Structure formats: C-alpha cells, structure tokens
Predict the structure.
Amino acid sequence: MEITAPRGVRDILPGETEKWRFVEGVAYNLAKRYNYREIIIPIFEHTELFSRGIGEATDIVSKEMYTFEDRGGRSLTLRPEATASIVRAYLEHHFEQKPQPQKFYFFGPMFRYERPQAGRYRQFWQIDFEALGSPDPLLDVEVIALAWDLMFSLGIKNLEIQINSIGCPKCKEGYKIALKEYLADKLNLLCEDCQRRYETNVLRILDCKRESCRSIVEGAPKITDYLCADCKNHFEEVKEGLDLLSLPYILNPYLVRGLDYYTRTTFEIISYKLGAQNALCGGGRYDLLAFEIGGSMVPGVGFAAGLERIVMVLEEEGLLQDTEKGIDIFIVSIGEEAKKQAFKLLHILRREGISADMDYTNKNLKAQMKIANQKKAAKVLIIGEDELSVGMVKIRDMDSGKQEEVSLSDVLSYLRRWKK
Ligand code: AMP
C-alpha cells in the first residue's frame, strides 16, 4: 500500500476507539458533576487567533502550526489547542452577559507539526476544561481539583501535581531582567533555540526539554521571588485552597508551559510511568488572553489533558481490560431459507436493543462458530434447516457451553428475559 496515514498521524482502530470513548465518558461525567458544559469548536480558525493568543515567539506558533491559505486568500490554521478558540467563542457569543464564570468542556483532535515520538503526535486528542469570567483563586483550585479527579476517576496512580505562579506582565518584566542577567555568561552553553529565545522570549528557556539547558535552568532565579503583592496573594490563596482539599502538590518554580498566554497559576499533572513526554495534562490561568485576541478583559483558567498519553498509562497499569466488550448475539445459519430467517430475526433483535450480528460469507457451521467467538458473542443462535423445519432455534451460551432449544416464536421473549 503506497498511501499511508501522514507521519505523526494515526488511525484509532476498533479496539482502541473503545478506550477513547471510555476516557471521554469519564471526562464527560466529570464535566457534568463540576458543571462544565460541552462546547464544540471549529477545526480551523483565522491564523491570527493563535499567533496573537498563543504568542509569536512560542514553538507552537513559530514552527508547529498547520497553516494554509483558503481559496479566498485567508490565512487559516488547524487548531493547535482549544483555549484560544473557546475564549474567542465566549467573546463572539457574548457569554460575558451570562452569570460568571461560564465553564466549558471540549473533546477533540489538535494539530501540531512536532517531531513524532512515543506520546507525541502531529494529530492528537485533548480533553479540555475552561472556566471564564472570574479571577477567584478558588477557581484555579477547582480546575486543578477537576484535573486530579479526572486522573483519579480513571484509576491512574503514581501522579504528581506541579504548580507555579508566573505572575502578571509586571512581575514577568522584573523576572526577565534577572533571568537574562543570570544567563548572560552562559549563553554559549545553551542550545541554538534557547540562544534565540534569549532575545525573543527569555521565559521560554525555562521550558526547554534539552538536558544541557535544563541543568543551567536549575540554578536560575525563581519567578516566585519576583511576584508583585497581588500575584503573591493569589498564589498563596491557590495553595491554601489546594491544602483545604488535601490535594498533594509540588512547587516547581520553573514551570512556565509552552504557551505565552499564561498569567499567575500554571500547573501540570505528571506521570512517573511515562518517559520524556510525561505531562498527562497541563494548564493554568490566562487573564489577558481575551484582551490579547481583541476582546475585553476576561479572566480565565483551564487545562488540557492528552488522550494518547492517558490511554498509554491506562494500558500500562492494566486499567482498560473491560473496554472491548463483545456483542450479545451472533446468529449462525445453515442454508438459504435459514439465512433469510436469521436476517429477519437479526433486525428484530437489534430493534429490541440487543446487539447482534450474523455471518454474511456463507461459511460452514464450524467457521461461523469461530467468527462468533472472535466477536465475543455472549450467546449464539443456531438456525439450521432441520431446526427450521420444526420451528426451533438452538441457543448456545458461549461462556458455559450450555445449549438449549427454543421455539422461533419464543426467541424474543427468551432473550428479553436474559437481557434484563
Ligand atoms: P498543551 O496544550 O501543550 O498545554 O498540552 C496539554 C496536554 O496535551 C499535554 O499534557 C499532553 O498530554 C497533550 N499533548 C500536547 N502535545 C501533544 C502531542 N504532540 N502529542 C500528544 N499529546 C500532546
């Protein structure tokens, strides 16, 4: 086969989709419990939304976006993340006129031109929660609690919450000067990207994953020592809130995250089970994002969790065994007339809410039984010519191997009783 899926893009096949839906189901239920309502955002947006929102100097905008011109000459971009779109939708549809905060839940694929590796793809799926319209530090705590609850509800253990505050633009300015001073005589030890970042956006150096840069960052001044009184208070209240809920967290003064829109709180949930790509979810507060994309000041806080990485951890920890359920009934038929009866019965069963299938390849009895097994059918209905001539059907329980004869007219009530 010459044409394969593009690099870094994968099919999510039957067998895997059940895992996807399982995680999505847990997230959707949590969204209801925490009162976050589902929003579905477009797959592409005006490029400007992301370049202004996420920041020109970020890796995402400078080298990872799938940007194209449409036939009308507009520059459009496949969404690399959901927050900017959700904020845009909030502004466009005047959610500021509703009671605040407004809370949103989203689930869907994102697109980034990254170097593919385990846990890193060019099309990947995110679960996203965003709360817009309140600067209350308890809302930061709610969002972190929600992220933690998501992992807990999925049964994932060996996790760590890392938090930081990167302050407001005022705090960042003072910190950037201190950071630049610290790095000035170490520039030649930094990677090429970081040498560029030193000029364009020095905070991004804290986010570099290269070991050589990380070891330099370890001795750098801490942004939490440069917070203004308001940002300091906010951070204290976030920590108090986390303590109030007994949520375990670790302070990581270098956690800036890869997007420029964050202000004050940033956080990640890290899994010890993953390799280099160990962040299961990440997020924070972004009080200036709405303003930066041309709207009014709307404070917000949220996070995104990566589906691929969550599924990887669930698989490793053996927490997904039950997701691939089989069907209720497989109908095996022998002969033309029996096949017709089987087909009619199949239709009736399905309309009764029973999951059912049959053979369409005219295989022999043994081969059809094998298919039933592969499809993990709970019961097999066998309609042969002999059975049909006396109006009977055999029902075989695949677990116990027990077989019963039931008259064709009683099959439905028999199966209804069984399904109850
Ligand atoms: P971000 O949108 O960069 O804050 O990332 C939020 C979460 O999305 C991360 O913690 C990952 O779980 C996931 N994620 C980000 N980028 C990728 C990628 N290229 N492939 C797979 N998952 C990703």
Q: What stands out?
A: Residues 44 and 78 are 4 Å apart (CA to CA). The pocket of adenosine monophosphate is lined by residues 81, 112, 114, 119-121, 124, 126, 257-258, 279-282, 304-306, 308-309 (CB under 6 Å). The first helix runs from residue 17 to 33.
